[in-house]
Amino acid sequence: MKQKLEVKRLALSSSSMHFNKTSENVKNQKDQLSAAIRMLLVAGKTLDAAHQQLQEANRLLSGERGYGNLKNLQKLLRLRQQHMIIQVSTLYPVKGMNEQAFGETIDSHSDGYSTGSPSPNESRPSHSSSLTILGLQLTILPSKKKFFGDKKEVQKSANALGYVAHAVSLISSYLDVPLRYPLRLGGSRSYIHDYAPLVEMTSSDLVANLASTSMTAKPTEFPLFLEGQYTTRATYAIFLLNKDLEQLLNYIGVQSLGPRHVLANLKELMRIIQSEEYICW
What we know:
By secondary structure, this protein is mostly helical. The chain folds into two domains: 62 residues; 207 residues, Actin-binding Protein, T-fimbrin, domain 1. It has nine helices and six strands, in the order ααβαββαββααβααα. A three-stranded antiparallel sheet has the order 1-2-3. Strands 4-5-6 form a three-stranded antiparallel sheet. It is elongated, with a radius of gyration of 37 Å.
């Protein structure tokens, strides 16, 4: 009998320990559940606040001063830019030789000044060597200037480059695009600036001095006309001018026609801005 009682006592003690352990586990789980519920409540309040903010943002975007208003303002801005570029194309029309000969009433022996602006629906120019600006063709500069015979052609090229420089300067200001190579306008005696360092630098030096160079470096001027006996500086100036045109073309999402197509790039730039696709861009 004693043995049976001892067995029952041990069983009861084991059951009591199991009950206590189970109760403790239940208590711990209850505490964890309570903490999780509190976290869910906080997260629910945060989500509700975020949802209200989203609704408010959507309301503002759809309101009269929201995204629709921004799109309308952008369209008005592009329309204004388009109008100003039309004025530039009227001041400095870029035309093909055939257009120059058979367009408006032009004296075939004159410089061929014209007031017509290029149509927005014109196709991309394919022969840049036959293009003119205000009736002047941009001829390739000779490798060395002669004292006789070339002076008239050199002056015409300088005039044409002065026209292009002024047109590029006007377009960049209307589009609010600072030119990578700034221009110093002077008609047929215009210059272009290059801020690139004159000496070669290692990549680490270039990174370390980038900020200070951009603030303190003095630009090198290159003439957009034949200066002196040789044409190296003028040729490089034309290259930089074309890079400015390429920058403006890239700004409106168009690729350049190439490094030797100054007038063609200018014509394409003005054509695209005057087209309907620019308004919807």
